[in-house]
């Protein structure tokens, strides 16, 4: 209290708190007229989304350059006053409640160089767009972030972010991953994409890059959530990868064009990855890996949290192992991931084991079985040559082995039975011959 009498609040600036109170009243009245959500006890009451006006889009675009991602104070202002009023107040100098003098001065300094129309034109020139809450493409699950939710999202790519995020899984892990981590991320991403799931990651080195490449390799959809503008090729070595993602998937950022990454922006980016997806898989992570931040966000948001085990001697898997001990579900392939995050009835394929042990096979059948490569398919003539038997005899043994569950036929060729029914595509991997 100041010396102006008991119960009189201390002024926040030259105009006292009167300006803030009047702004709050004006903002509440505008929200009622527009049918926007009201604020009750710090929470935003749900409301039916209305079309986003041009003035609202300009204001939100401006605020993405004004405020840092995850700024809960700005989120509360948006809920209380609306984006247009917040942007007007910053430009006019009408300090909003909760802002210190220094904070308000910093926001006003930033506002001097903000040109939302230029930013919108820049993203449009890239073939991108700026999404706001209320747009048809806006993912409603981002509302789970509350006041820390994004002001808006800058997006490049042909896919719908809303529909892509409906069936999406985050694959995250160490930047300095091992060959094992890169292999697992690639395999998981490829298998998820083949089953119609979008793969979401952060486009960083290591596990992130392997996950994006794995999805792209099978023609799947992948989403890169960036800690910079969608026009900034970061990291530099991933510029080609980012262009490929933008060509068939999505680049998503909270920051406007031209903005570069910082350490806090990387941290805040992780909450967006967790919120967009149905679940997060930590492929490989050391004890202090940034991917553990994504895991914590996923757990707090009620998303499925999964982790892949690694060698107990590897420090790169120590963080993943700790997650498994505390909260995460251990997963060893994409089918187990889908079982956890998928719709009811999406179960992993039943594993079919051979009807009899391998050692009980007749010697002739055993030699034919040994003639088949670990990967790929061979014709009967080549199998007979490798088993040193006649082709009719080899075919008879192959049919017998097929009935017992050891082998399966793919067109005119034969291969070892695969869990999940993944068949050869007609080509042989390097080192495998065929006829």
From TrEMBL:
Bias kind Basic residues: ranges: 10-34
SUPFAM superfamilies in UniProt: MCP/YpsA-like
A GO BP annotation: DNA-mediated transformation
Start and end residues of each Smf/DprA SLOG domain: 130-340
Residue span of region Disordered: 1-40
Signal peptide from the UniProt entry: none
Record family assignment: Belongs to the DprA/Smf family.
UniProt-listed NCBIfam families: dprA
PANTHER family: PROTEIN SMF
The protein's name: DNA-protecting protein DprA
């Amino acid at each position: 209290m100041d010396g102006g009498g008991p119960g009189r609040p201390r002024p926040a600036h030259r105009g006292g708190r009167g300006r803030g109170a009047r702004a709050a009243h004006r903002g509440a009245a505008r929200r009622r007229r527009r049918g926007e959500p009201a604020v009750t006890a710090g929470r935003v009451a749900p409301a039916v989304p209305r079309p986003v006006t041009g003035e609202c889009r300009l204001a939100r675009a401006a605020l993405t350059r004004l405020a840092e991602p995850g700024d809960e104070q700005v989120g509360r202002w948006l809920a209380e006053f609306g984006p247009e009023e917040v942007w007007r107040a910053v430009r006019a100098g009408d300090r909003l409640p909760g802002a210190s003098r220094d904070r308000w001065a910093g926001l006003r300094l930033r506002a001097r160089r903000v040109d939302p129309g230029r930013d919108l034109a820049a993203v449009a020139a890239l073939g991108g767009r700026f999404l706001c809450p209320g747009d048809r493409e806006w993912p409603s699950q981002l509302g789970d972030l509350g006041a820390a939710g994004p002001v808006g999202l800058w997006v490049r790519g042909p896919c719908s972010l809303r529909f892509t995020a409906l069936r999406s899984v985050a694959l995250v892990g160490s930047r300095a991953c091992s060959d094992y981590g890169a292999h697992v991320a690639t395999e998981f991403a490829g298998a998820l994409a083949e089953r119609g799931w979008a793969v979401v990651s952060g486009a960083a080195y290591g596990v992130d890059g392997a996950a994006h490449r794995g999805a792209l390799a099978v023609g799947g959809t992948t989403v890169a959530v960036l800690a910079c503008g969608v026009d900034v090729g970061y990291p530099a070595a991933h510029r080609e990868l980012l262009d490929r993602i933008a060509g068939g998937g999505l680049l998503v950022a909270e920051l406007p064009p031209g903005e570069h990454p910082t350490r806090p922006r990387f941290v805040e980016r992780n909450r967006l990855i967790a919120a967009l997806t149905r679940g997060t898989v930590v492929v490989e992570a050391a004890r202090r890996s940034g991917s553990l931040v994504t895991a914590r966000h996923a757990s707090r948001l009620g998303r499925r949290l999964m982790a892949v085990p690694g060698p107990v001697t590897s420090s790169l898997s120590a963080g993943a192992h700790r997650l498994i001990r505390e909260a995460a579900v251990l997963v060893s392939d994409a089918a187990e991931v889908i079982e956890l995050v998928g719709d009811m009835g999406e179960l992993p394929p039943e594993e079919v084991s051979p009807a009899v042990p391998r050692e009980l096979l007749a010697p002739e059948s055993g030699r034919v079985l040994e003639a088949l490569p670990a990967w790929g398919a061979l014709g009967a003539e080549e199998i007979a040559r490798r088993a040193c038997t006649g082709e009719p005899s080899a075919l008879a043994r192959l049919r017998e082995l097929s009935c017992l569950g050891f082998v399966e036929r793919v067109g005119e060729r034969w291969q070892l039975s695969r869990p999940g029914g993944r068949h050869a595509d007609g080509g042989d991997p390097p080192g495998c011959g065929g006829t």
